[in-house]
Amino acid sequence: MSLRRYYDEDFVITNIDRRECRRIVPMRVLALGLSRTGTDSLRSALRTLGFHDVYHGWSVILENPADGSMWYEALRAKYDGVGKPYGRPEFDKLLGHCQAVTDIPAATFAEELIKAYPEAKVVLTDRNVDSWYDSILQTLYPYNVGLLASFHLWINWVFRTRARWVRPMFAKIWHETYKGDFIKHGKSAFREHYAKIRELVPEDRLLIYHVSDGWGPLCKFLDVPKPEQPFPKGNDLDVFYKRFQADSWYTGKEIGLKLLLCVALLLSPIQQSNLFNTLMIDNGNRAKWDRTLVGLTLSSRLLETSSHRA
Known about the structure:
Elements: E1 2-6, E2 9-13, E3 29-31, H1 39-48, E4 54-55, H2 57-63, H3 67-80, H4 88-94, E5 100-101, H5 110-116, E6 121-125, H6 129-138, H7 140-144, H8 147-158, H9 166-177, H10 182-200, E7 206-209, H11 215-222, H12 237-266, H13 269-278, H14 286-309
Parallel strand pairs: 3-5, 3-6, 4-5, 6-7
Antiparallel strand pairs: 1-2
């Protein structure tokens, strides 16, 4: 576990296999609005109100990318009929540390989560469909369509980065939500999603919420005191771009280190020593470097074995 700075916020970085987890706190709030409707602001607001933790898209992108494997498994079951559909037992493992969810991937499983947690209150972050559509075009669209999206998916998979399951997960969500064509189906998909939530959830359990309304309606609905501090504002265009830039930098650093270690493994001992000297690795770190090379070799073999079994 460590802390990483992604532009404006520190995120706790972990590598937890949620399949081994269980629920440790009750699920209290399901915020099931689509991305770019104020979900990041709501994440911060719910934390301020004492709901811990709050699962958001950033949770799988930045904090624990290993979650992407389970989300992808759930998506295959939901849309392709492959494997067991996710219900409360599976979500208790994946989301057992959280009292609230917001944003995708959780919103993609709105119907399943509403059924799994009938005691939880539902918040539907809403926005004018035209401004939402324009916001998606400026933010998520370039990351999910075209050569850049394909390249990111390929390079993360080839180098087995910690984020290798994140891209397939989001690509699957994008394809299924917008029927493979956001330009054509984006607005209709938005309307269908919001209509479905209204149909599934009784009025006394549902809050249609605009983050511009601030603390008042949210605190009243959740029956919690109104904080004195201003309502948080997060994930505007500048924040969105710079967090993704920081994530790309960390991923690039991971790939670069793996390339360097692979090159070192192919070198003779003398060539390795020259490489160490070139990189100004002092003698005090030589033993640590040797252990790293051994660990990389063993890890590579384990990964190959796991891939063959899969």
